[in-house]
Design a protein that fits this description.
Strand order of the largest sheet: 3-17-14-15-16-13-4
Largest sheet: 7 strands, antiparallel
Number of domains: 4
Distance between the termini: 40 Å
Oligomer: single chain
Number of strands: 23
CATH topology of the largest domain: Elongation Factor Tu (Ef-tu), domain 3
CATH class of the largest domain: Mainly Beta
């Protein structure tokens, strides 16, 4: 029973204005409005800007491997040579078919020219009445039309043979495996004499572009409000302590991951001295700023209890608690939102011991 009375008295003492309490000598701070900026440390990952598993497009035996792990290559450079005798035979057969088609086309053109010449002579002779029979001219005209159709057919056959030869040579060209872009060979899986299949699970080589890297940063939801493309950002790697690198924001996912509540942001990092490598986990000095001005007060001005968060202002020389919501911290200042405005005075060092209505001097 006694404990219940004590709790009731304590509650009444908290809720009632403390006009009778001793006046306090306090220091006030002014509510500021500005757009502050700061940096937070975020983990990141380096990845190659371009990467590819170099695979065989056609089956064959490895004849030569001209590069190895760590080799720097240029686009179009020959990496691996394969051998497949059956492809050489297919190309030779396609060339033979093309020669035959071209010969047939030439023969058809010659026949068409002879029939055309005969038709022209008969047509000239037909101008003299009774020189030739009318049916004879009609027959030669039909022969001329048939010869022209044969020429068109032979030309189509020649074009088809040319396409087959082109396809055979292109397929045979797949025996020479070249680099699709500038980069570094980071792994090798084959050796001369091995039989490889087209589009097999095991690639021939792994190629990565290491001079240009993607710095991927998972930015927490709290910090995604003001991300600007082209802004330079500094980062550090454990392998080079004390050294600072710079990358620029290039690509923004514009969507949050539902599990981590982060947004993936990619920065372009250029590996000029070769000290960066794909797979590294740098730490990024991520810039955090506000698109709109924030109300800032000293962090000591904000009181947080189990029931509320508030700051204390002075009304007619007495304490008045104003409920607020806390925002991000900027050094010794804290962003707040609530029924308060720029220029208001708040207690610089507030506490929950200062009750509503306490006299302030």
């Amino acid at each position: 029973m006694y404990s219940h009375k004590r709790i009731l008295l304590v509650t009444l003492a908290w809720c009632l204005p403390a006009f009778a309490q001793t006046p306090r000598n306090v220091e006030f701070a002014t509510v500021e409005s500005r757009s502050p900026s700061r940096t937070v440390t975020l983990p990141a990952e380096l990845a190659p800007f371009l990467q590819a598993n170099i695979e065989a497009r056609v089956p064959g035996y490895i004849e030569r491997v001209l590069v190895d792990r760590g080799s720097n290559v240029r686009r179009g450079q020959l990496l691996v040579e394969l051998s497949a005798p059956e492809m050489t035979a297919q190309t030779a057969a396609a060339e033979s078919s093309l020669h035959q088609a071209e010969a047939d086309e030439s023969q058809a053109e010659a026949q068409a020219a002879a029939v055309e010449s005969t038709f022209d002579r008969l047509q000239e002779a037909s101008k003299t009445p009774g020189a030739i029979a009318g049916n004879e001219l009609v027959q030669v005209e039909k022969q001329r039309d048939a010869a022209k159709s044969l020429v068109q057919s032979r030309k189509a056959a020649t074009r088809a043979a040319q396409e087959r030869l082109r396809a055979a040579k292109e397929t045979e060209g797949y025996l020479r495996v070249t680099a699709p872009f500038d980069g570094t060979i980071t792994d090798r899986f084959v050796h001369p004499g091995m039989l490889v299949q087209a589009n097999a699970q095991m690639p021939l080589l792994k190629l990565q572009q290491t001079s240009h890297l993607r710095l991927t940063v998972p930015v927490p939801e709290t910090y995604v409000g003001h991300i600007v493309r082209g802004v330079p950002v500094t980062f550090h790697i454990a392998a080079q302590p004390g050294k600072t690198y710079t990358a620029k924001i290039a690509r923004i996912a514009s969507a949050l991951d539902s599990r981590s509540r982060t947004m993936m942001v990619e920065l372009d990092a250029y590996n000029k001295d070769g000290s960066l490598a794909p797979g590294m986990y740098p730490t990024v000095d991520w810039p955090v700023s506000s698109a709109e001005p924030l109300l800032l007060v000293p962090s000591t001005s904000v009181v947080t209890t189990t029931e509320r968060t508030f700051v204390i202002t002075s009304v007619n020389g007495h304490a008045h608690c104003v409920d607020v919501r806390k925002g991000p911290a900027f050094g010794e200042q804290l962003a707040i939102r609530g029924n308060i405005k720029q220029g208001d005075k708040v207690l610089k060092r507030a506490s929950d011991e200062i009750r509503e209505g306490t006299p302030l001097l």
